[in-house]
Amino acid sequence: MRQLVHRVKRAARRRAISRENLSFLGSSYGSRGAHPLLRFPVAERIAETKGLLRMSVTQTRAETAAGKSCWSCNAAANGAHFCPACGKIQPLPRDTNYFALFGLPERLGIDAGALEQQFHKLSWKLHPDNFVRADEFERNLSLERSSELNDAYRTLSDPLARVEYLLEHEGMRKEGTTKQQAPPELLEEVFELNESLDELREARESGEGVNELRGPLESAQSDFQGKLADVDGELNAVFEKWDAALDSGASKDARAALMAQMNEILNRRSYIRNLVANVEQELTKTS
After folding, report:
1. 47, 25 in Cβ contact below 8 A?
2. For residue 91, with 0-12 CB atoms within 10 Å meaning exposed, 13-18 middle and 19 or more buried, which class applies?
3. Which residue(s) pair with 82 in the sheet?
4. Would you call 165 exposed, middle or buried from its count of C-beta atoms within 10 A (0-12, 13-18, 19+)?
5. CA angle in degrees (0–180, nearest 5) for 235-237-240
6. Per-residue confidence of the chain (287 residues) as pLDDT tens digits?
7. Quick check: 126 and 37 in contact, CB under 8 A?
8. Angle subtended by helix axes 252-285 and 210-247, to nearest 10
9. Alpha-carbon torsion (155, 159, 165, 169), positive or negative
10. 2-157: what fold?
11. Could you say which DSSP state residue 8 is in?
12. Domain segments of the chain as ranges
């Protein structure tokens, strides 16, 4: 294992790239909307190390023994952030997901306060400032883990992002493949709404009859907002079923059926949400 670490370090040094070719990390650190704990000078170091990080740490994660043994002392690490024997930061197993990063089961009902508390705790432990005097291997691990922790917290803090992530992780949902089809029970209402939107656009171009068309559209918008709330309630009910299935050790087929149901509800929600947004956009243009 020590030879592996030395090989990674040598590879990282050989592949070190110039500062001019480094790109900033984006919104994960340093943005106005970032969590207060994330507004540290670490952003600059992450940006400066991003290219190296992709080559060395990601490669390390693929080559180490899946986090089972400590890379430093060979004690059992068992996927923990730190070795229980020597305290060294550890690469995570390949299959570690956002839930496991916080030591959580893949439940959709999460205590927001407990999640934030765990985030604070891990943020301080994994912060790169704690590894300033560590070797390059550990510094890179700290940078990568801090970035992952930030992304995981943002995702798990939002119920919709949480279920989207779960389904994507389980291969039930892929980004960019969301089905945008009108739910069968809403076909007639959607058809009428689209006709009303076309009439509004024509009236806006001609400058006549706009005010008469606003009322029905505002009523339709309110109606679809109510449907959106109903879908959210339906989704929350399936969340509870999913958590109960995990707690009871339900079969793989039973869990797959629940995931398929959640995926269908998310597709329906996405369609209705877009309808509401389209109506709002058209009404704004006529105000």
Report:
1. yes
2. buried
3. 89
4. buried
5. 115
6. 444 444 444 444 444 433 333 332 333 333 333 333 333 343 443 344 334 334 344 444 434 444 578 999 999 988 899 999 999 999 988 888 999 999 999 999 999 999 999 999 999 999 999 999 999 999 999 999 999 999 999 999 999 999 999 999 999 887 655 556 677 888 888 888 888 888 888 888 887 777 888 888 889 889 999 999 999 999 999 999 999 999 999 999 999 999 999 999 999 999 999 999 998 988 888 77
7. no
8. 160
9. positive
10. Helix Hairpins (1.10.287)
11. H
12. 2-157, 184-285
Strands (E), 167-283: none
| Max intra-chain CA distance, the chain | 79
Residue with tokens 């089905």: 179
Give, as one character, the DSSP assignment of residue 260. H
Q: Which of 138, 140, 109, 124 is nearest to 245 (CA)?
A: 109
How far from each other are the two terminal CA atoms of the chain, in whole angstroms? Answer: 67
Q: Which of 115, 127, 69 is nearest to 93 (CA)?
A: 69
Predicted TM-score (pTM) of this structure: 0.71
Asked if 50 and 13 touch (Cβ cutoff 8 Å), the reply is no
Any idea how long the chain is? 287
User: Rounded to an integer, what distance in angstroms lies between the CA atom of residue 34 and that of residue 272?
Assistant: 29
Distance CA 122, CA 115 (A): 11
Q: Which two tokens stand for residue 167?
A: 């389904």
How far apart are alpha carbons 160 and 175 in whole angstroms? 14
